[in-house]
Amino acid sequence: MRNWLPVLLLIALLCGLCAAMPVLEPLFRGLQPDKARVIYQRESLFFLLGHHLMLVAVSAAVATLVAVAAGIFATRPSGRDFLPLVSQVASIGQTFPPVAVLALAVPVLGFGEAPILFALMLYGLLPILRNTLAGLEGLDPTVREAALGMGMSPWQVLCQVELPLAGRVILAGIRTSVTINIATAAIGSTIGARTLGDPVIAGLVNGNTAYVLQGAILIGLLALAADSLFEALERAWGAGVAIANK
Amino acid sequence: MPVTRSLPDPRAPNRVVPVLAGLALVLVWSLDFGRIQPNRIVPGTGHGLVSALGWGGAALISLALGGSLLLSILPVRRRYPCLLVLITVLLAALPQLLVVFAARQLPEGAPYARTVIGAGFWCLLFLLSLMVVEVLGRLRARYGVPLLLLALIAASWLVLLRGDGLDSLSLLREYQAQPGKFEQALWTHLALAFGAVAISAVLAFALALRMIRSPGWQRPILGAVSFLQTIPSLAVFGLLIAPLGALASAFPVLQALGVRGIGWAPALLALVAYSLLPMVRNTFVALTDIPEHLTDAARGMGMTERQVFFQLKLPLAMPVIIEGLRITTIQAIGLTAVAALIGAGGFGDFIFQGLGQAAMDLVLLGALPTIALALLADALLTMLAASLRPTPARA
Questions:
Q1: Which of A104-118, A218-232, B177-191, B318-332 has the lowest mean pLDDT?
Q2: What's the complex ipTM?
Q3: Burial call B62-93: b when 16+ CB within 10 Å, e when fewer
Q4: Nearest-by-Cβ selection for B232 from A108, A186, A190
Q5: For residue B7, is it within any domain?
Q6: Do residues B159 and B210 both lie within one domain?
Q7: Are B310 and B319 within 8 A, CB to CB?
Q8: Which of A6, A40, B366, B384 falls 20 to 30 Å from B305 in CA-CA distance?
């Protein structure tokens, strides 16, 4: 339970701020006395938060599925020929700046949700793929041989030995991917996604620092909440493996 | 005893190149190779492979792709060198295809008409690059060969881009529309990114030394820098506006220096903050991971602590420190593009202006150089790290 406390606190803070932003009006008024409006009200902050989360969650889910499948394929005997290329692509691809990937998606797919979702998936794939490969390749070959020698089928070896052992590394990849995607989705509001980046961009365009601050605080809290969630998950996973090994 | 994986027989057929070449063939025939736009905003008409290059050009590309497909499965002796030459020539000649396209399809007497690179061309470029990566991997090429190839391809592209045939290319139109802007953006981008990396390298080194001297600092410092890394860039830029604005209005000296809530000052601060985690972590790990017996041996040889540090620890730690520098530099180049949102300039300016005006070529003019810069920094620093890796002395 102690693992999950920071997550719950951060989520409560995030939701509380989304709901109670108008209460803080005097505070923001002091920061930006010359504007008629100091609280972002073009869209409910809950709506933006939900949309932001949806974009990140969908892209993370798809990216995880595709990346783990590709990682498993490239480490099987039938796909081993593709391993050098796949691992090269995973590492070279990560040198592409996420903003540039986001920007490139627009000429191809147009403005709106689709290009953002596509860019987030594509970019989110790479850290997960890299970690899946590292996790599966980093296993001691004798473990696999021992499992095969015990009479397990290759499928059983994969599901009961390799994936559980590589799971922690894969989870770390998903964490990196989600952290990057929360940041990239926020920038996505420049190409027409409705995310928590909206107040920041609107504030920058209109010179309204209060808007910028509201958006920035919420984005920061969202990122921290997601990160502490993964921290707790990794601990739980570690504890689970430790129990299973006993 | 390390387990060595059985290496594939070099004469065995390759299964990766045929897949890539086949995919390239399908895509290049099914997607638009390029578009002709009457002006900057109107989408214009697309042209497939045959319409863009004529039957001759289409046949030539198909032959080259089919050839590389066959080369990779037929029992040829020098498979990979041949493939490498073929693919490199194709890559180097790619802009020539655009010249042919412009010459064939660009209407006469339409000064605003421009040629736009289509999805087919991009796919061809992407898949050919993957093929090069695969072939180089099979050849186990050292750093000289890829560098030579890169120089060859870049030189050929530059020559073709400088020629007259590509004047109508939309990217070049955007480049010429604002003379001097591109160079200015390049320098701003480089100054911000490398300035931040340099500052954070010095800071990180100091922090790492502090952490080594007093282990009590390890948790707080690592905690603080990884906390900074978690906060999304847009939020950090946003959060810095108010305090820096307040500072600038409180101290006119700062204002005279150009420090304001927006502009280069918050951008640089945020970039430095982001760069700290990879630098601190790698420097710390590199300097502490040195095997005990080596330092013992050095001390036993009568080295002073200072000598141990400069002649043993630092050289051994260098590759890992450079790796941190590489991650930091790539990240800083990307984040500098985001910093354009708070008025810091650089290539991000083109990206966000282009997005605002729905001018996709302007977006590309910002995005492509940003990617190129990141790839270049990656290549150079990887090579540097590899060349600094200490090699065991031969007996």
A1: A104-118
A2: 0.85
A3: eebbeebbebbeeeeeebbebbbebbbebbbb
A4: A186
A5: no
A6: no
A7: no
A8: B384
B/e letters for A77-92, b = 16+ CB within 10 Å, e = fewer, are eeeebbbbbbbebbeb
Contacts by B247-254 with C-beta closer than 8 Å and gap 24+? none
Residue B53 near residue B33 (C-beta atoms within 8 A): yes
Minimum distance, in Å, between the CA of residue A180 and any CA atom of chain B: 8
Residue A137 belongs to some domain of the structure: yes
Count up the domains in chain A and report the number: 1
Say which residue, B367 or B139, is predicted with more confidence.
Answer: B367
Closest Cβ–Cβ partner in A100, A215, A217 for B370: A100
Find the domain containing A75 and state its range: 5-16+44-245
Distance CA(B232)–CA(B227), nearest Å, equals: 11
Is B395's pLDDT higher than 80?
Answer: no
Segment among A2-16, B116-130, B140-154, B333-347 with least mean pLDDT: B140-154
- Average pLDDT score over residue span B105-129: 85
What mean pLDDT do residues B209-226 have? 89
Mutate which: B234, B237, B349, B352, vs A, most A CBs within 10 A: B234
Domain of residue B259 covers: 181-388
The answer on pLDDT for B156 being more than 60 is: yes
Q: Are residues B267 and B186 in the same domain?
A: yes
Distance from CA of A4 to the nearest CA of B (A): 18
Contact state of A84 with B8 under an 8 Å Cβ cutoff? no
Chain A residues with CB within 8 Å of chain B CB: 31, 81-82, 84-85, 88-89, 92, 95-100, 103-104, 106-108, 111, 141, 179, 182-183, 186-187, 190-191, 197, 200-201, 203-204, 209, 212-213, 215-217, 219-220, 223-224, 227
Identify the pLDDT of residue A136: 92
Q: Name which of A75, A95, A195 to mutate to probe chain B: the one with the most chain B Cβ atoms within 10 A of its Cβ.
A: A95
Question: Any chain A CB within 8 A of the CB of B91?
Answer: no
Question: Is the separation of the CB atoms in A30 and A212 below 8 Å?
Answer: no
Using the Cβ of B335 and the Cβ atoms of chain A, whether some distance falls under 8 Å is answered with yes
Residues 6+ apart with CB under 8 A from B121: B33, B34, B94, B97, B98
- Partners of B374 on chain A (C-beta within 8 Å) are 95-97, 100
Q: What rounded mean pLDDT belongs to chain B?
A: 86
pLDDT band with cut points at 50, 70 and 90 for residue B34:
confident
Segment among B140-149, B171-180, B362-371 with least mean pLDDT = B140-149
Q: Is residue A164 in a domain?
A: yes
Verify whether the Cβ–Cβ distance B235 to A215 is below 8 Å.
Answer: yes
Average pLDDT over residues B312-332: 91
Residue A211 lies in a domain: yes
Chain A residues near residue B14 by CB distance under 8 angstroms: 81
Predicted pLDDT at B1: 35
Model confidence band, residue B103 (pLDDT cutoffs 50, 70, 90) = confident
Q: What is the pLDDT of residue B3?
A: 42
Same domain for B314 and B196, yes or no, is: yes
pLDDT of residue A174: 94
